[in-house]
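SAMPLE LOG
Freezer: B-3
Tube label: C17
Construct: single chain, 287 aa
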Amino acid sequence: MTNGLVHHKELNLDGIKIFYREAGPREAPVILLPHGYPCSSYEFRNYMPPLADRWRLIAPDFPGCGYSDTPEDFDYTFDGYTDFLERFTAKLGLNKFTLYLHDFGSQIGLRFAISRPDLIASLIIQNGDIYEDVLGKKYSSLKAIWEKTPENSFAEIRQGISQEEFQREFLNDVRPELAAAIPPDLWMLHWSLMTDRRKDISAHIIAGLKDNLDWFPRYQSYLQDHRPPTLIIWGPQDGYMPEASARAYLRDLPDAELHLLDGGHWLLETNLDEAVSLTRSFLGRHG
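STRUCTURE (predicted):
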């Protein structure tokens, strides 16, 4: 494989077509890149090439996301996605890797790490929340919806899934100059890939975030117990996960390397060079 080029691949995983992006030498140390919502492996398209001289980067589209299949019988829950990630890495023969944790990929990734701590060489954490006491103000409206009956909660979340909401998710709370640097491709592409079935799946996942709060102490215990080398790169202009959400990780990872950048939730769009430089430095010391 030629360094610097991102290759776009598919594999058959127990009858499900899975799309993924890969860059870097096959024998190089691996960085696994689970994506966030409402995105896909597309979020890592620019992050992968400048690191592919020394690392093998792999970014799958979860089932029901991006260019992967949307099978009817898949378990579209955090547990289901965790099981998918374990089967995907086993299919590729990955036996040790750095795990990138972002958005809902952080919840899935940490469940995977709890299940298979032997596979985790180090962590890169970027705007992924696991501390309930420091959640951002945007969570207040979501918590209000969670207080309703499951049926009404789902219906309200489902109704709110729209192209306009996708745009708001990607722009989040970044200041206007940074918002202008975030390409509309993010929400236009991912909205074009949404079907009614995928909208239903997304609504169930968002509703499931309420129960996921019960997992936060377990994620924290994993970090306390295993203390993997960790780089935290964070965009504090984030209505869901502000600066306090980043600093909270130091409670359980006091030796983690924390960098607050002038960005927001999707900082790879606005702070790419900084993120790549910090990654190279960190993995050069902990690879």
